[in-house]
Amino acid sequence: MAQQPMLKFVQTARQMPDKRQAEDRREDFDEIYREFAAEKAEEQASRCSQCGVPYCQTHCPLHNNIPDWLMLTATGRLREAYEMSQATNTFPEICGRICPQDRLCEGNCVIEQSGHGTVTIGAVEKYITDTAWEQGWVQPVQPRQERGESVGIIGAGPGGLAAADRLRQAGVQVTVYDRYDRAGGLMTYGIPSFKLEKPVVMRRIEQLEASGVQFVLNCNVGEDISFDAIRGKHDAVLIATGVYTSRDLGGPGSGLAGIEKAIDYLTASNRNSFGDEVEAFDNGALDARGKRVVVIGGGDTAMDCVRTAVRQGASSVKLLYRRDRENMPGSQREVQNAEEEGVDFVWLTAPAGFTGEAQVDGVIVQRMRLGVADASGRRAPELIEGADYIEPADLVIKALGFEPEDLPTLWNTPELTVTRWGTIRCDHKTHMSALPGVFAVGDIVRGASLVVWAIRDGREAADAMLDYLAQADAVAAQ
Fold first, then answer.
1. Residues in contact with 140: Cβ distance below 8 Å, sequence separation at least 6, in sequence order
2. Domain 22-135 in CATH: superfamily?
3. Contacts of 164 (CB under 8 A, 6+ apart)
4. Which residue intervals define the domain Dihydroprymidine dehydrogenase in the entry (predicted)?
5. Which CATH code for domain 248-400?
6. 99-135: per-residue pLDDT in tens?
7. Helix (H) or strand (E) segment spanning residue 363
8. Which of 72, 239, 349, 403 is the most exposed place for a label (fewest CB within 10 A)?
């Protein structure tokens, strides 16, 4: 009788891929997890309980067929596992690396709820597609038939690229416009290499180019080309710009040198890793080497900043967050990794101002306590009077989140309506904005969110755009 290939979670313990030692990780920007060997990937995939109601799949924004590709991996059918994973996710190897699985699929795994430890879904997902690349299974899109319609996509981040891929599968001509010199958006310039090595992103860009996607880089819409011109060139347009305006922080001394935005800090570090000349990094302004670094914030961007500062050789790295560990929005896995690498988390603290003459030399820190729950359901921080202190700092990084740019003004398009938060108002089923034929996806609609949600939006919008183009063709044929 053949051995049951699945449901081995009782006799087989959960195991992540080996993690490099913290002292080694601090010295470079390489990814911290090693690759699963084939036998280990099969073993860990075999722990899946194949439950009737797969909460992992339900809580994945892309509704990936996780139990099915786990079973295929466990039984050695890896190419089928890759094809099933790729069918619902444009970039599975990227999601396997950077998704907060502890808050999504793995956090809702049935065997995790029963106390056996979740299936290591993210690590297996990464293994499947990395192997597919090694084996040459990942090939550029070759549409069965080329179509005459064209779509312009503004923004080369995950939402725009996911839509581009899906549109090319249907044979639509696609041009992607982006303000940066490399495509990828925050996957290229925001997320550090120790979470997402840049060749992983660049090979996807190269694949899209080989599929026929045209990239127009170093192109700032509203300056180098007008939004109206893009609308005139294409049959439909997708806005996928993301959100890049950093939330600011006031208070005494907030204008001192040495107080920097997280996006500027991370972009400089990533550009340096590409070998680019970055003046603000080269002159030391955005280099943490030898400095006492204080990061303000509690999300994943703050985690990226503290762990980057460690690798740049900061003398000390502290993170101030106004709530406690249990109430922070960032991934708990990232917190653990940061603590292992030497980051000091100072919970229940908030900045009240900064000290220094021309250059910052300290943060005025207020101690907080948690009161009643706020509108988000988390307990609201309250100030403890008279408990302020000065935290010495040579470099302060503000990681307080991002807000949308004022696109209607920047693009001279007041008819592009936005919400009171500045995000584009659109139909959440079709993703079409107030302008006919203009769609929007990702953070510019949702506000700052996850890469996986942008991928979902991009895929959905591409399908809606295909319907729109078909309807337009039908009208034109009458």
1. 207, 208, 210, 211
2. Alpha-helical ferredoxin (1.10.1060.10)
3. 153, 174, 176, 208, 213, 458, 462
4. 25-136
5. 3.50.50.60
6. 999 889 999 998 887 788 899 999 999 999 999 999 9
7. strand 360-373
8. 403
